[in-house]
Amino acid sequence: MNNSKPVFLGLLGVVSLLAGGVTYAITGEFSAVPLLLVWGGLLLTMVSLYVNFAGVRGLIARRSTKFGANMLLMIGIFAVIIGMIGATSMRYKYRIDLTATKRYSLSPQTVKILKTLERDVDAIAFYRSDERTRQAMNDLLQEYSYHSPKFKYWFVDPDKRPVETAKYGVTSYRTTLIRSGDREEIVGFESEEKVTNSLLRVLKDEVKTIYFVNGHGEHPLDDAEKPGYKTAKEALEKDNFKVKDLLLVGEGAVPEDAAVVVVGGPKKDFLEGELKKLADYIGKGGKALFMLDPSPTPVLAKYLADYGFVVGNDIVIDKRGQMIGANYLTPVVTEYHKDHPLGRDFSVATFYPVSRSVEITEDPTKGSYNLAKTGANSWSMTEGKLNEDDIKFNPALDRRGPINIVSVTTVKVEGEESKPPVDSAADETAGMDETTRKALKGSQEEGLSSWGKIVVVGDSDFVGNAHIGLMGNKDYFLNMISWLAEETSLISVRRKTVGVTPMPLSDTQSKLVFWLSVVIAPSLILAVGGAVVARRRWAA
Q1: 283 in a domain, yes or no?
Q2: 239 and 336, same structural domain?
Q3: Per-residue pLDDT averaged across 329-336, rounded?
Q4: Where residue 475 sits, what CATH number does that domain have?
Q5: Model-level pTM?
Q6: Cα torsion 423, 411, 372, 487: sign
Q7: Mean per-residue pLDDT for 359-364?
Q8: How far apart are CA 513 and CA 374, in angstroms?
Q9: Which residues have a Cβ under 8 Å from the Cβ of 361 and sit 6 or more positions away?
Q10: Where in the sequence is the domain holding 63, given as residue range(s)?
Q11: Contact by Cβ (8 Å): 457, 291
Q12: Is residue 534 part of a domain?
């Protein structure tokens, strides 16, 4: 038989095997076509070997073939060893972050939460394939999945898979959907803080209720006009709160399901019976946020004075308000108290259109702090003395800044033995809800619920529809509500920066680097090459 025929059959068999493998790699399944190609290739190869058995035996007997077989065997053994090491490393992972800023490590709070996961969590990241920040998000989510097998993630390209993207209701790039069961949260951009906060929210089964008092000319919740609170309401609902109106006159007491009661810019004073209901609520460990404009509500101001607040009968003047196109009556706050959770990691400017001063005598044992102050060039002016056509500082009548606009205190529940309020910067679980405290510390912080909380702000317009979008206004308002409702599972994680460690070189070291890399190393290569060429010519 002609030797070319078996060789041709063998080559055809190898080509058929390769074609079957490529087809499987493209389609991802062993359908009829790749299956037929693979079996056909194996059959042709076996026929070729059988027909040319004598030639194959002679080939095996050659010394070069034995040497090649030994080489293939060694390569095979090495490949098996590498494969076993890879499989072992995939099953038993151990990672070390050698970056100076621990850029590729999660915070201890996040790690503890992940290790206590009791149900599956999925993260679906919607990024284009060529999105330059996709790798950063992949690195972040990979860290989450490394610490918990219950956390799984995958990427979806909105351009390539628009139907799937629309199914999840995602309308923008660089968006990640965190879901567990029937709970979902949308995360924007590559932030550990945002991912962990969303993770905690989808794991929580309880939905807390925020009540907004009405009946005194307060900002309407469902009003979409400038003064309304519709945007604030939607932001709270997005953070998994229920939002309801509360008419104190028609209630026997503040509803038991009230996590926080908000008084937003009343234009008329409260009745004595209404204040008593609020006092009873706070005295039992309730939480309240008062946002009071410069207006005639002396009864409410006196009521807050019983808790230690001094609500000024004044207006705060700040020329920095012009940075947003406003007038001098819009003070700007950039200084926040760093010993309290509401200011510890918050540094974004907030704006308070037409604000009054609010102060309290600071006492950490009572959780009393002045939280947000204007700049040194601001001042407070008695409301009745204001002349908008000629606003000037009068040392005899006015008070030079910084002027405080936001204050907080806590109220001990009568008849209960409890620890002081936990607001210390040293406690990473300060103000956190029960679910998060258990995740972070393994048990509930004893005595935390035995204290009522009050936050007073000298302005109510800063969360109105017209101003809530300014700089940090919305975030600071939501932080207040979250802290009051003990929902500060919204952990604060500072952004990790890419560390740059320069290595200064002396003049001598610079010259040494130049000579070694530019002169000596290339010269050695040329010298060795020249020696090899000369030796070969001499040998020839």
Answers
A1: yes
A2: yes
A3: 90
A4: 3.40.50.880
A5: 0.61
A6: positive
A7: 93
A8: 54
A9: 308, 368
A10: 4-91
A11: yes
A12: no
